[in-house]
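hey can u check if this looks right to u? its 296 residues, i copy pasted from the old doc so theres a chance i mangled smth
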Amino acid sequence: MPDQSPALLRELHLLTREGNLNADALRKLKQVNHLMGLLRPAVEDVLSRHPDAVMVDAGSGNAYLGFVLYELFLKNALGGSLLSIEGRPELTERAKGRAERLGFDRMQFQTAHIDTARYPERIHLLMALHACDTATDDALVAAIRHGADHVAVVPCCQAEVAAQLKERRPVAGGSGSMSLLYAHAWHRREFGSHLTNVIRALTLEAFGYQVTVTELTGWEHSLKNELILGRRVHRENRRARVQLERLLAETGVAPKLTRELGVKPATLSTPAGGGEAPEPEAPGGSEAANPPPAGE
């Protein structure tokens, strides 16, 4: 992006002393820049409606994402702040020093795991890039509980649901054919990862978000490139909640996200005649949900 300064790129060790980008740095920068382009509507939306918008980068690591976002959208803005949360203290201290040298005085840093961090009472935008396994769930829980207007997550490795599928028992009255999708360990990992993200997207819908699932960047840059974007448009979506509860019941899994938010699986009943129950209507976003909260 043309608005990135050489000073920032050098601080992030993406630019050599000779002013060049090596292959690894170029890969990282391309991914972050692509995400910035996808986040631009959300950032501009919260800044236009909330002059002192609070943005959170959960599981920030080296804070590449936060520093690039700050320079592009907050450096010359009159207000708005960015909180970076990272569990490794050495990375937090390193990022603090960079922010001081760059004069990014509205960047804040906290050393904490995502599930135990001290969050602002109100969050307007929450991001989590490659937070491993259930850490992505922790980020989504924080976004929902603190009323985030926008949320963007790129999940990383996911093992919890695959482990639950391994121990799963067939649903009473079912054919058992669903279990063939994850009978082998490799398929179980892949199916578990996919199911985890389907549940994450549907959970956001159930809590009033309009959800988009897309690709972050090309396969040549990262195998973990599924981007889940959510924009809060309603208090809740009862139809999506019913679909979520039924999906949990039919798959027999209970991810951390739904456990933390108190979502229970539906009670399934076998239809008369032993046939399969009718399929629920496919998720259709939040258009059929409740009206938007007053004053938003």
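The mean pLDDT is 85.
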